[in-house]
Amino acid sequence: MYQIVEETVCALLPIIQNKPFAFFGHSMGSYIAFMTAQHLKEKYKLEPMHLFVSSVNAPHTYVFKAMLAHHQKGKAMSDEQLHSFLLRVGGTQMDVLNDKDFPEYYIHIMKADMHIITNYIFKAPSEPVLSCDLTCFLGTEDIVKDVKAWKDVTSGRLDTLMRPGNHFYIKEPANEAFVRNYITKCLELSMF
């Protein structure tokens, strides 16, 4: 996770200096967005105007990690366990999951993501590490349920918005449009 954040910061730093910016992340991308925001604030005194996270619990709650650890039982998931996990999370198209080439093309990528998430450690902060507003988007049928703990990481306002769907609710065009419009309005209001 820290290598991803370092590389992200190196790529973004020349672009975001002296400009307002915001981050959006979905699922594991939310952790990357959060850690990037935290790193930029700590090291460069730069902070996003707003952090938008989607379909993920706060990083210090470990709810998602606990579920993954249950599936892993201390070792890498088998292909069958990963297949079962993806079915439970929802949102992955059945034709993809049932494709005979799925293991060859996707399993190693998914296992790498699982490895990053299960080895990511963020301890509950004694005080907020960010001061920007934070919005959590969530599907009504998502396995992620409690996002209130995100308030622990920011002294800014926390909003939670639910949309119909599962973990990948954002794939629905109406939900994608809603999220995009909401983010645009938030950023427009922040500029004034």
UniProtKB/TrEMBL annotation:
Belongs to the thioesterase family. One of its GO terms (molecular function) is fatty acyl-[ACP] hydrolase activity. Residues 1-185 form the Thioesterase domain. PANTHER family: S-ACYL FATTY ACID SYNTHASE THIOESTERASE, MEDIUM CHAIN, THIOESTERASE. It holds the Pfam family Thioesterase. One of its GO terms (biological process) is fatty acid metabolic process. This is oleoyl-[acyl-carrier-protein] hydrolase. Gene3D superfamilies: alpha/beta hydrolase (3.40.50.1820). The gene is OLAH. It comes from Phyllostomus discolor (pale spear-nosed bat). Its EC number is 3.1.2.14. It comes from the Eukaryota.
